[in-house]
Amino acid sequence: MIKKGLLILLIMAGMLHVSQAQETWSLQKCVDYALENNIQIKQAELDNKTAEVNLFGSRMSSLPNLNANLGYNYSVGRSIDPFTNTIIDQDVTSQNGGINASVPIFNGFQIRNAKKRDEQSLLAANYNLEDTKNTVTLNVVTFYTNILFNRELLEVAQLRLQTTQTQENRVSKQVELGALPQANLLQIRQQLANDELEVIRAENNVELSTLQLKQALQIAADVDFQIEVPELNDPEQGGVLESSQQIYEYALQNQPVIKAAKANTKSAEYGIGVAKSGYYPSISASAGFSTAYSSAAPDQLPAIGAEQVVEQVPIGIVEGTNQVVVTQTTRPAEFRDNTFMNQLDVNQRKFAGISVNIPIFNRFQVKNNVQRAVINHERNEYQLIATKNQLQQTIEQAYLDVKTASKAYSALENSLEAAELSFENAKQRLELGATDAVEYTQIKNDYERVKSDLVRAKYDFIFKSKVLDFYQGKPLNF
């Protein structure tokens, strides 16, 4: 029973392995996998998070600062008593602590402009992330289409090889019967060798294009990988295309690469305002609380809030008389013991204030910062223009490619029909001995070349159409 159970488990594991190995990848699955695992997308996501952090920081910069401090000191010899601020000659331990806060009131609109600058930077990061995803998607579609294209070329090469093998068998029998000369058989066998080489090349192209897609998906080369082959109808001819200018106008409003360039330009514009804030005065308010403890404090501390008592204190006698010279001193009426908490209570200090910082001369640093910000803004404006120009050129080229591919496909369809009739006629004449293998091979090669060219034109038209669909915001699927 145990052996049977193990055998069943092994069979089930093998079936599971086979099912996994035979799993096919659709175009949508390839795109989803790339969007989830692509390194460039992950880097763009990190740029997005950085922009979010920067924006959060600029938004929080208008809030108050709040800080606390603690300190401990030990002095030996002549020092200043922290309690009375008098000079003493003894060992002293002291502790202090406090809390303070400050808030900006006006800083030349720096915070406002920095906030708007970082908002635009975040928008640009979002659009850059979207553009990176679009680029990755388009690359996956390109590699996926290449596999389909090379597979169909492989099928054409295999069918050509089968046709040549069939013809070689017929010619071989006719040569044996003396109906055809030996030269015809040699010519057919040479063509057979060429067709076998073309099959090998086509197989290599399929493997190479599959490897390119694996690399785009960051899948190991030795992983079993099969793509789903969709039903691709022959391209429809005669459809009305929008003009390249219409496609460009749509892309200009919707392509994330343009939106990112616009957001970067706007961010640089607010950056000028941030730099100019250095010309203005800045105003801030502050408040704080502190207290301290000293081992050199007296044993008795004045009670907080106690009434003051005026006393007459003798300080000497007038010379030559019995008259006493006195002075008046004020002292607290009540005292309390010098404990740690009582001393902290007595030494409390509270403060509040407003400060104004007026820039007068700063070695032209603000001027230089403004000039750099202006230059950066101009650079982003030029980048926006360059991005628009590149987009227009790409769309115009894609538009022309689609029109050219459509014409080429139509012409090759007509050429294939004529080449096929010519090939069928040459095949019949070869079997009847009305032509030799050289002429037959030439006609057959012309026919196969037209078939291969038609396959290329078909996929060229499909892919070029997908590129144009991409700029029109249409889904990239088959």
TrEMBL record:
Signal peptide extent: 1-21
Protein name: TolC family protein
Ranges in coiled-coil conformation: 388-429
Top-rank lineage group of the source organism: Bacteria
GO MF terms held by the record: efflux transmembrane transporter activity; porin activity
Database matches in Pfam families: OEP
Stated family: Belongs to the outer membrane factor (OMF) (TC 1.B.17) family.
Keywords linked to the UniProt accession: Cell outer membrane, Coiled coil, Membrane, Signal, Transmembrane, Transmembrane beta strand, Transport
GO cellular component: cell outer membrane; efflux pump complex
Primary localisation category: membrane
Localization (cell): Cell outer membrane
Source organism per UniProt: Marivirga atlantica
InterPro entries: OMP_efflux, TolC-like
Gene3D superfamilies: Outer membrane efflux proteins (OEP)
